[in-house]
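Researcher: Here's the sequence for the chain we discussed earlier.
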Amino acid sequence: MLCIIMDKATLRPLVLGILRKTPQTHLHAIENEIRRQTDEYERHDVLAVQEILWELLVQGVLAPGKNSLNLNLPFVHVTEFGTECLEDGVALVHDPDGYIAGLESACGDACDPIVVETTREALLTYLAGRYAPAMVLLARSAERVIERAAEAAIRHGHREDHGVRRLEEARSNPQRLAAALRRALASWHLPPPFAEDVEPELAGIATVLDAARTAEGRFRLPRVDRETVFAHLLLFPGHCRFVYDLVVHLEGEPAG
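Model: Thanks. This is the structure I predict for it:
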């Protein structure tokens, strides 16, 4: 008889949804609720559910115990940090497959594989509790996003007879390039919504770069905490959506 195993990508959203509704629970209660929600769950899938719970424990979303009478595993409760993560769906950061799918959707057809794969590594590093290297990896993704926007801006500038000398001169330094890009785009009278959003969106990407680069542009290990990296990961797909829509506009096609 064929044994079909539910993968963690399918189970994880179910587990997170259950934890939103029942923040104090235990493994078997989660299992029973999954069985109620889907006919695909089988007894052997408990191992995948257990792996997901351990990941959430390591990440600080869950902690052992349900109440004063049940302080140990398999009882678990959502922590204060976990409550913040679960609100408004931001637990997506704790769902690597869902997060990357969202990033790819945000970037669209213009998405650079370097951005996707480096952001994936940044997320997995964050989930392993390594916050400084996660920030460095996310900065590498941000660097590529800025490079992609600058490439489109330079081509657009040549076509429209805008000055691009500062952009071209800054290409060797990502921070200088981000600053030059913000100045150039601010002077080009972009249509809405680009005109209103170009400064805050590019400033958000520049903040990621600044966290992991010295003033001279060299990589460094920043002093960052879990909440700071979490916030940057949460905002990054939105920044990417804006930039890649902008790239499509600058390259002469209507933004999707």
